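[User]
Protein folding is very new to me. Any chance you could explain this protein sequence and its structure tokens? I have pasted everything here:
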Amino acid sequence: MKRICTIFTLVALICLTSATASAQNRDRKQFRDDIREYKHNYFKQKLDLSREQANSFFDLYDKMDDAITALNDEARTLETRIYGAPDGTITDIEYEVATRTLIEVKEKEAAIEKEYYDKFNEILNKKQLFELRKVERDFTMQLLKYHHKNGKKK
């Protein structure tokens, strides 16, 4: 699930930076909200969630997604600083600290997912919980296909 959340976050950011003209005109928050609404509908259908399950699940899932997104935003800020620095200005120690920090982000993501897995287990049945990973992957693939298809029109 960690990998899928990371992929989704990256795809969402790619979409945010190079989406179609109409999406580019909207502010970032509105676009994220639109993606989230589409994701909710997709998950609800694919996991066959009841109304009660959907209400409880998405409250938690969105909190998990926000926490993971915040971690990844921090990691991207660090990477941007390192990659944006002029050649030769970053020391080996800074590279090492940055690399360790990026590894720690993955560990923190895993901890967040473990925490939320237990909460999801109280809402979803065993099959739904198992299928969640596949649904996340499928959703990400749909976003990638949409982005690829619309990116060629430019």
